[in-house]
Each structure stands twice: as C-alpha cells, then as structure tokens.
From TrEMBL:
Cofactor requirements of the protein: pyridoxal 5'-phosphate
Protein family: Belongs to the alanine racemase family.
Residue numbers annotated as active site: K35, Y256
Name by which UniProt lists this protein: Alanine racemase
Xref: HAMAP family: Ala_racemase
Keywords: Isomerase, Pyridoxal phosphate
Gene from which the chain derives: alr
SUPFAM superfamilies (UniProt xref): Alanine racemase C-terminal domain-like, PLP-binding barrel
Length: 374
C-alpha cells in the first residue's frame, strides 16, 4: 500500500472562487492566472473548472502549450513576455499574447518574421520596480511598438505592490493613468488583492483583471481578512493518516532536537507527512492541524516524512483517534471542517501561495469531481 498521504483538488471550489471574482468585477474580463502549474494544483486538473474565465495567464511557454493542448482557443497571456527571440515563433504558432516590459523584447519583436501580428501588453513600472518601463519612457516604448508591423493591438498593464496592505494602490493608479493617458488600448491592472479590496475603483475593474490566488481559495490579505470574510472555498486539501501513536509522560520529548517536552501525560499521533511532501519544516509546535476533523496542533519538529500531532484535545473530548485516523494538514476534512491553508502558512512565516506551489511531486493528487448542483 502506498503511504496514506494525498492531495485533493476541489473543482467545485475553483468554480465558486471564479464566480466570486466575477461578482467583484462584473464588467471586467478575467484572466485566470495558472502560472506555477496553477499554483501547484496542476493545469490539467483545474482547466475544466476555470475555463469559464476569459483567458489564461502564465509565464512558461511549456505551460502555454499545455493549455492549448487542452483545447483552449481563447486568449493566453505570457505575463513576463518572451525570454529569447525564438519564443516569438511559438507565440505566433500558438497565438499567444505577451507582455512587453523592456527594450530588449521590442528589439526581438522588430527582428521577428511573422505573418500574423502579435497582440501585446505593454508593461508600465508604476512603482513596483520589478518589470516594466519607467513612466517617462512609456510613451516612447509605445510609439516604437506601434510602428512595428509585427505588432497588432497594444494593451496596457501594470502590477500593484501593495494591493493587500495599508499603502494601497492609489499612487500606482495615478502613475498608470498619467502614463497611458489618451493612448488607445485595453487596460489591465488588478491582481487578486486589488479585485477583492479595491474593486469599487473603476480603474481596478478596467478591461482585464488578473486573478490568481483568489481562485485557489487563499486570502491575499491574510491575516487582516480570512477566506471566510471573502467567501472563498479551499481548492486544495492535503490529507494523510496517523501511522502511529505514543503515550508521553512529563519530561518526555518529541522528535529531532527534542523541541517539544510534555508537561503532563499526553498522547500524540504520528502523521505520514513531512517536509519532503511540501509541508513546511518552519512550522513549529502549535501549527494547527485537524485530526478526524478536530482542530489540534503539531508538536516538535517536522521531519522529512512524518510529523507529530497532539491528541489531547481529542482524548479530552472523547473523540476516538489512533492509527488510521484522518489528518488534514490544510483544506477540508471528510467531516466538512476546514483548516485554511493561510493558517498553516502563517505558522510557517509565509503565505498560502508558497505552500500550494510547494506541494511535492511525490504526493498523489486526486481530483474531486463537481458536487451535484444542490
Ligand atoms: C502572479 C501574477 C498575478 C496574480 O497574482 P495574485 O496575487 O495571485 O492574484 C497577476 N499579475 C501578474 C503580473 C502576476 O505575475
């Protein structure tokens, strides 16, 4: 028998979360961001549930090929554009739209031989200082692109650094408005956090929104708001079983480095999940976990293949637990109890994004088909 660990992808939840984006930005078109293999979920596993989006946005040309291979004929956007000249051949062949964020990418386009002009998204650096043309260089970049026979429509995009936090987006919206003023073309500004937190602003709802994490049921502004606040549903469950138990006496320690010491007699369970499965080793004692749907905590260090959980809350409540009991590392238990991935991420000092993207190759994944309509 294989190890009992597995991940489940909830397609009903993906559909629900996409509907939340639609609801927040009813007049925008929605890019479903499926970079990083759909945030660790697997492009092929999320495709059916997300094909109600208007397009798919990603970074990797191989991933774009996979989306086309699934039969998607609508828009696909390369969020970082091309990396080398021959990537443009694939863009032509698969009719990919691509970001243009630097002069080198314009040079490549100018040298590219194509029958079909490309749709491009010119990227403004409005303050993130990662990719994009500085505001004072934006118009000349646009003029250069606009003069190329290789280029068809030019859209405008920028990316927010603080849509999830107190600084907000106003300064970047202002920079964007100034730079693109009276240039023709569609606009795309918002990521998930902007969609959820700033959707009242007309600029945020402009033409295309780029929704990633919200689709995967993690709150972009956790812990200020949780998934309950945003009415999102978990799309990935990581679950395993207990494969052993231990009875501890006061003074007994648990695991490598003896990081946990029992203060009173207590029972612990050993779950078949470790950092080689993608569970963060940074999660110290106290990280939330569900056993048979009951919320408890991890104790001691996470090892490569196992971690220990405190069974005292279950024993106190009279909930039976032992070898074979269901352990939910994040997501939904069979009882329906939910442990948000964001709670686990917080215990590891990171965000839900990193946990879902880090799900290890060795973890088998099952797709839970859509629940029948109620
Ligand atoms: C990843 C990414 C997004 C999606 O971000 P979320 O916070 O997951 O919604 C949007 N735009 C760009 C350019 C990205 O790289």
């Amino acid at each position: 028998m294989p190890r009992p660990i597995h991940a489940t992808i909830h397609t009903t939840a993906l559909r629900h979360n996409l509907a939340r984006v639609r609801h927040a930005t009813p007049d925008a078109r929605v890019w479903a961001v499926v970079k990083a293999n759909a945030y660790g979920h697997g492009i092929e596993r999320v495709f059916e549930a997300l094909r109600g989006a208007d397009g798919f946005a990603l970074l990797d040309l191989a991933e774009a090929e996979r989306v086309r291979h699934l039969g998607w004929r609508g828009p696909i956007l390369l969020l970082e554009g091309v990396f080398e000249p021959r990537d443009l051949e694939l863009c032509s062949r698969l009719s990919l739209w691509h970001a243009v964020h630097c002069d080198e990418q314009i040079d490549m386009l100018a040298a590219h031989k194509t029958q079909v002009p490309h749709r491009v998204f010119l990227k403004l650096n409005s303050g993130m200082n990662r990719l994009g043309f500085a505001p004072q260089r934006y118009r000349s970049a646009w003029a250069r692109l606009n003069a190329l026979p290789q280029v068809d429509e030019i859209s405008h995009m920028t990316h927010f650094s603080d849509a999830d936090g107190p600084r907000g987006i106003a300064h970047q919206v202002q920079a964007f408005a100034t730079a693109v003023q009276d240039l023709p073309g569609e606009r795309s500004l918002s990521n998930s956090a902007a969609v959820l937190r700033h959707a009242q602003a007309p600029e945020v709802r402009a033409d295309w929104v780029r929704a990633g994490i919200v689709l995967y049921g993690s709150a972009p502004d956790h812990p200020e708001h949780d998934v309950g606040h945003w009415h999102l549903q978990p799309t990935m469950t990581l679950a395993t079983r207990l494969i052993g138990t231990q009875q501890l006496q006061p003074g007994d320690t648990v695991g490598y480095g003896s990081r946990f010491t029992a203060e009173q007699p207590m029972r612990i369970g050993i779950a078949a999940c470790g950092y080689a499965d993608g569970y963060p080793r940074h999660c110290g004692t106290g990280t939330p976990v569900l056993v048979n749907g009951v919320r408890t905590r991890t104790v001691g260090r996470v090892s490569m293949d196992m971690l220990a959980v405190d069974l005292a809350p279950l024993d106190a409540a009279g909930v039976p637990a032992g070898v074979g009991s269901e352990v939910t590392l994040w997501g939904a238990s069979r009882s329906g109890a939910v442990l948000p991935i964001d709670d686990v991420a917080q215990a590891a000092g990171t965000i839900g994004y990193e946990l879902m993207c880090a799900l290890a190759q060795r973890v088998p994944v099952v797709v839970e088909p859509d629940a029948p309509a109620a």
